[in-house]
């Protein structure tokens, strides 16, 4: 299933906001990717959590790696573009990019998230910085 198909087939976030998980191999990659996402207004905020151990199958072999987790706050309508951006700027052949809907939360925080990410079809400079 393609990324656009997967995001379109899923349940839309009632708030319009999403959390996206992306794993990275080290802090430098995480910080660089996080900064680029925020600068491009594809994310309002990115948290970087260290200390992750990932166990997965890759090319028929069980692997175990230390990683960090990026928790990216964005808009559902930006998921396809955000996914493409991560794939273009990530060192992994197949980076993890999975999104979860934000069902609700602090109205002022959710408004801040929307104000600091691009709207559909808008350029990177259209969002306001209220933080």
Automatic annotation (TrEMBL):
Name of the protein described by the UniProt record: Divalent-cation tolerance protein CutA
Biological processes per GO annotation: response to metal ion
Family that this chain belongs to: Belongs to the CutA family.
High-level lineage: Eukaryota, Viridiplantae, Chlorophyta, core chlorophytes, Chlorophyceae
Source organism (scientific name): Volvox africanus
Entry superkingdom: Eukaryota
Stretch forming the signal peptide: none
Pfam families noted in UniProt: CutA1
InterPro entries: Ion_tolerance_CutA, N-reg_PII-like_a/b, N-reg_PII/ATP_PRibTrfase_C
């Amino acid at each position: 299933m393609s990324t656009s198909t997967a995001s379109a087939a899923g349940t839309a976030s009632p708030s319009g906001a999403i959390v996206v998980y992306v794993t990275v191999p080290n802090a430098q990659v995480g910080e660089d990717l996080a900064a680029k996402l925020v600068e491009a207004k594809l994310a309002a905020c990115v948290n970087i959590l260290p200390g992750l151990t990932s166990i997965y199958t890759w090319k028929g072999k069980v692997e175990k790696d230390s990683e960090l987790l990026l928790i990216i706050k964005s808009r559902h309508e930006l998921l396809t573009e955000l996914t493409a951006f991560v794939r273009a700027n990530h060192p992994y052949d197949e980076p993890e990019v999975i999104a979860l809907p934000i069902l609700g939360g602090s109205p002022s925080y959710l408004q801040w998230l929307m104000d600091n990410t691009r709207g559909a079809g808008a350029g990177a400079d259209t969002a306001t910085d209220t933080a």
